[in-house]
């Protein structure tokens, strides 16, 4: 298989890179190593939520905060991508969402503050339109609604936390029994999402909610299950039937909100004739004379070489195989370089699960042009560029910056690949 | 904490204390068990879960071996639900092991352990994962897996149904005395610090590795040597049966099939205090290397976590150290030895022989109380009332089935997908006042013990604290975080491969999807409280009296 640019990865970094190449008019192939569990983290695009991993106050203006970060930390992935890539990448994605029929909102000039399933306010930059009515800068009271037997959103738990954190208006919890669902049925978010595409089901749920939500001007928070394949229509119809503003709250995998985003973007690329190679993890790069000649994929039953002028390695992180951690040595799947070494495995971790983790910092050393480099700063291959979680120092957990870093670095790496 | 009174106070909620409580109750003696942590949270719950045939001790520790043989047979009768009859193999891999074989065979003969030499080919047919190093194999059908949590809970619930009381997270802080006679204990709630007393006629110290510390409160000495053992849990069951090295007991020479996992054990190191149990990388490495000598797949299987427990070895004054010390036990009659009436200690021993230990110590205490009712714990099964106790846990019903979950009715809702725990399995425990935090729920149900290490079920369990107990949001969040942190402490030691990838999902989920790190930071109540569910009493909890709970169970 031959192409101009091969993009390897599953997440937003890879999608942003593929879109960038597509927009340039060059040929692109997207290689997906397999569905990643990081999928569910993309219910929203978080550009930067907090200035540091331990800061308590959320950031209101993400563009300013990223600019500050770039000035302060020249080795930060945002600094490596550059402010221009942050702005151009976000603009590219917003435009793509629109073109693909995904209703999203947000700008780099402000963060939403949306409640999570634990009832914690969380800053995020871009969000599906079905989530933004939950913004806590609005003063309207909130009724959180859960379903009998659905364990991944507990309105009582979320309301108990949110009521303490957010004192602007009333927060309450209701639980209703959706037709056909109950404590004895095994079901997931996907089952509920499919049911919500049925008008009769939607109306039956809405009728119960109308009865239970009595306070004037209240908005209703509901787990993110309002339709899978036609979310905009399902959402609009449901909101009309409820008679109150409705907002979705993302849940654990399988996260319907994330599935909608990825399924739609992937299909949109395919509709444009872009080849996607599914479930084929890359396991070696053939490098001669400092150039990568092809990348070998493990496809079903055979080995598939992908040959491109340049490559964007945009794997999200450990989860989708950006690196392989042995007991002591971390290696990458392309160049088989030792990326990190730890004397004992505990050295990769912090004492607390909720602290900054050394293993999250692990990644390729990079050149100015985002090429993976050896310890002397020489590129491992001139035509390979890196984005996403495989970059050193890429740790979005504490600052809530996963989506923004993915998009900015994906965009920048694709620009470099096009220039190569 | 209101003052109360009883006949006998049992200190310690491990297998021994639970066995003592049941024994007393079956003899008609009113009793309260006081445990400073949770049931099975000390030595018992941190054992490797091998129901010893006695083969491990038959050469060097004949008495312990004979007791294992007898008690193993009794446990299969009275505690069927806690035992998986896996059988076991003793395998030789080195020249040294080979030289041990005649002594092993002779030891088995002397102590009455059923043992049959089988060909390596036959062994490999039964256990395909046996390594190429294996040169001799003995089949020992009476090795098994003993679920330590279920064993303790089963004993305690059996006693509770007969009126016994249990106080978990309650520490004995001192004793009440009148002259040379004990008249009660002072207690303190470990979570709230509330204090109270229990008046009683007799106290049994069944605290294992902590026995010396408890006895010291009375100014008497009990010489217990705390010896640490570290274990590694693999996410897959590599063998149907328990695999032992046929040699002088040493490090890393047992692989126990615990339900769906394999447990590699164990090490042996003296520690200064029973709660000082650091896990060393060298121990973890050795467990894996030694395990790989016997079984293929040990090095490639997903290591889920490591944990350490403490053996309560009793110092008989001999020169022996660590493994050389006897696994035998001793009853100390402090009335006879120290002139303190109403105080008895039981020390040494092992989980497999807990029932016998309980019988012996209760014999002494009952004699002083003037009770002559004989012990019946060897005859009365734990679940003797035809109550659906067994259904609370997924138990293998057929011998040697690698995955014990086969009989699960399809498509039932699950709270913990890894361990197939259903919402109705956890619900009763949220009504039990002895269950104080999510770790307590885990010990009773296995939720959170599978490969994902509570990434998903922690939210569901924390939500139940709010819905079922009326706990406030920050307290429930803290309980969720504490539950995950406890899992994390074990996972950190095997942080490579799939488990590393898994934990990135956990941190992503809790920090990025839920923003829990900020919830903990922002809410001073959630952030500052060291004790997760301590507030449930004030939170409008609906906890019924223990007797009521027993009725429902």
- Main β-sheet description of chain B: 9 strands, mixed
**CATH third-level topology of the largest domain in chain A:** FAD/NAD(P)-binding domain
Structural class of chain B: alpha/beta
Beta-strand level of the residues of chain B, as a percent range?
A: 15-25%
Q: How would you describe what is shown here?
A:
The complex is a heterodimer of chains A (420) and B (553). Chain A folds into two domains: 2-102 and 262-419, FAD/NAD(P)-binding domain (3-Layer(bba) Sandwich); 132-249, Rossmann fold (3-Layer(aba) Sandwich). Chain A is 30% helix and 22% strand. Chain A is built from eleven helices and 20 strands. In chain A, the strands form six sheets. In chain A, strands 1, 2, 11, 12, 13, 14 and 20 form a seven-stranded mixed sheet that branches. Chain A has a four-stranded parallel sheet with strand order 8-7-9-10. In chain A, strand 18 and strand 19 (372-373) form a beta hairpin. In chain A, helix 1 runs parallel beside helix 11, helix 4 packs across helix 11 and helix 7 packs parallel to helix 8 (231-242). Chain B has 553 residues and is of the alpha/beta class. Helices cover 34% and strands 20% of the residues of chain B. Chain B has 17 helices and 22 strands. In chain B, helix 1 (15-26) packs parallel to helix 5, helix 1 (15-26) crosses helix 9 and helix 12 packs antiparallel against helix 13 (473-491). The two termini of chain B are 25 Å apart.
């Amino acid at each position: 298989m031959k192409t101009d640019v091969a993009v390897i990865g599953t997440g937003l970094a890879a999608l942003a890179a593929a879109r960038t190449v597509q927009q340039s008019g060059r040929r692109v192939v997207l290689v997906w190593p397999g569905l990643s569990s990081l999928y569910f983290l993309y219910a929203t695009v978080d550009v930067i939520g907090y200035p540091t991993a331990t800061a308590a106050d959320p950031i209101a203006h993400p563009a300013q905060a990223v600019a500050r970060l770039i000035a302060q930390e020249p080795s930060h992935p945002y600094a490596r991508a550059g402010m221009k890539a942050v702005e151009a990448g976000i603009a590219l994605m917003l435009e793509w969402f629109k073109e693909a029929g995904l209703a999203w909102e947000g700008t780099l000039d402000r963060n939403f503050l949306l409640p999570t399933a634990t009832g914690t306010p969380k800053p995020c930059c871009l969000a599906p339109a079905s989530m933004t009515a939950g913004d806590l800068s609005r003063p309207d009271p909130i009724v959180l609604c859960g379903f009998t037997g659905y364990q991944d959103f507990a309105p009582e738990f979320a309301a108990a936390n949110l009521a303490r954190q957010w004192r602007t208006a009333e927060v309450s919890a209701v639980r209703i029994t959706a037709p056909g669902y109950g404590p004895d049925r095994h079901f997931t978010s996907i089952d509920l999402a499919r049911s919500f595409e049925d008008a009769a089901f939607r109306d039956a749920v809405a009728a119960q909610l109308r009865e239970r939500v009595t306070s004037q001007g209240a908005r209703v928070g509901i787990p993110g299950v309002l339709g899978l394949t036609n979310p905009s229509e399902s959402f609009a119809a449901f909101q009309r039937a409820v008679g109150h503003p409705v907002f979705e709250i993302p849940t654990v995998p399988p996260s319907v909100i994330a599935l909608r985003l990825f399924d739609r973007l992937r299909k949109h690329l395919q509709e444009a004739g872009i080849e996607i190679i599914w479930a084929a993890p890359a396991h070696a790069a053939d490098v001669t004379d400092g150039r990568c000649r092809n990348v070998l994929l493990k496809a079903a039953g055979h080995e598939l070489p992908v040959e491109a002028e340049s490559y964007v390695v945009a794997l999200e992180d450990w989860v989708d195989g950006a690196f392989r951690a042995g007991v002591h040595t971390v290696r990458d799947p392309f160049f088989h370089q030792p990326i990190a070494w730890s004397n004992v495995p505990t050295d990769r971790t912090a004492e607390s699960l909720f602290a900054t983790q050394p293993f999250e910092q692990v990644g390729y050393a990079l050149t100015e042009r985002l090429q993976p480099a050896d310890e002397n700063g020489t590129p491992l291959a001139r035509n390979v560029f890196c984005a996403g979680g495989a970059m050193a120092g890429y740790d979005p957990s504490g600052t809530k910056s996963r989506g923004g870093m993915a998009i900015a670095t994906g965009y920048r790496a694709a620009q470099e690949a096009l220039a190569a | 904490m209101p003052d109360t009174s009883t006949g006998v106070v049992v200190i310690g909620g491990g297998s021994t204390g639970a066995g003592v409580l049941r024994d007393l109750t079956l003899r008609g003696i009113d009793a309260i068990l006081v445990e400073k942590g949770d049931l099975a949270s000390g030595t018992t719950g941190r054992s490797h879960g091998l129901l010893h045939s006695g083969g491990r001790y038959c050469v060097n520790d004949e008495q312990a071996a004979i007791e294992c043989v007898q008690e193993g047979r009794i446990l299969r009768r009275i505690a069927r639900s806690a035992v998986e009859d896996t059988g076991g193999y003793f395998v030789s891999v080195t020249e040294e092991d080979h030289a041990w074989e005649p002594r092993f065979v002779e030891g088995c003969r002397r102590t009455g352990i059923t043992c049959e030499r089988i060909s390596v080919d036959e062994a490999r047919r039964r256990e395909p994962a046996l390594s190429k190093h294996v040169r001799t194999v003995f089949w020992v059908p009476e090795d098994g897996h003993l679920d330590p949590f279920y064993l303790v809970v089963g004993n305690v619930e059996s006693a509770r149904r007969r009126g016994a009381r249990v106080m978990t997270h309650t520490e004995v802080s001192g004793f009440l005395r009148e002259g040379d006679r004990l008249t009660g204990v002072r207690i303190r709630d470990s979570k709230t610090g509330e204090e109270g007393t229990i008046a009683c006629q007799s106290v049994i110290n069944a605290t294992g590795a902590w026995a010396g510390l408890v006895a010291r409160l009375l100014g008497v000495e009990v010489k217990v040597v705390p010896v640490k053992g570290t274990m590694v849990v693999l996410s897959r069951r590599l063998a149907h049966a328990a695999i032992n090295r046929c040699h002088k007991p040493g490090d890393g020479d047992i692989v126990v099939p615990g339900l769906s996992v394999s447990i590699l054990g164990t090490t042996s190191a003296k520690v200064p205090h029973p709660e000082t149990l650091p896990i060393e990388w060298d121990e973890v490495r050795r467990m894996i290397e030694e395990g790989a000598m016997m079984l293929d797949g040990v090095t490639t299987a997903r290591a889920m976590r490591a944990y350490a427990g403490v053996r309560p070895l009793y110092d008989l004054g001999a020169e022996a150290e660590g493994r050389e010390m006897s696994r035998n036990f001793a009853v100390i009659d402090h009335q006879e030895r120290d002139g303190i009436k109403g105080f008895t200690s039981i020390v040494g021993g092992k989980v497999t022989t807990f029932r016998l230990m309980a019988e012996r110590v209760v014999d002494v205490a009952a004699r002083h109380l003037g009770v002559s009712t004989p012990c019946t714990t060897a005859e009365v099964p734990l679940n003797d009332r035809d109550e659906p106790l067994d259904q609370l846990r997924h138990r293998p019903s057929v011998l040697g089935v690698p995955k014990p979950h086969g009989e699960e009715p399809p498509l039932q809702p699950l709270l913990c997908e890894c361990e197939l725990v259903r919402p109705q399995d956890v619900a009763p425990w949220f009504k039990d006042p002895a269950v104080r935090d999510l770790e307590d729920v885990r010990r009773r149900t296995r939720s959170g013990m599978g490969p994902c290490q509570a990434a998903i079920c922690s939210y569901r369990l924390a939500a139940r604290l709010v819905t079922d107990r009326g706990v406030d949001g920050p307290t429930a969040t803290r309980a969720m975080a504490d539950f995950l942190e406890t899992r994390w402490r074990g996972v950190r030691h095997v942080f490579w491969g799939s488990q590393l990838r898994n934990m990135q999902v956990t941190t992503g989920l809790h920090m990025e999807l839920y923003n829990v790190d900020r919830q903990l930071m922002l809410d001073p109540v959630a952030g500052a409280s060291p004790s997760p569910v301590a507030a449930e009493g004030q939170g409008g909890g609906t906890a019924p009296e223990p007797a009521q709970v027993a009725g429902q169970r």
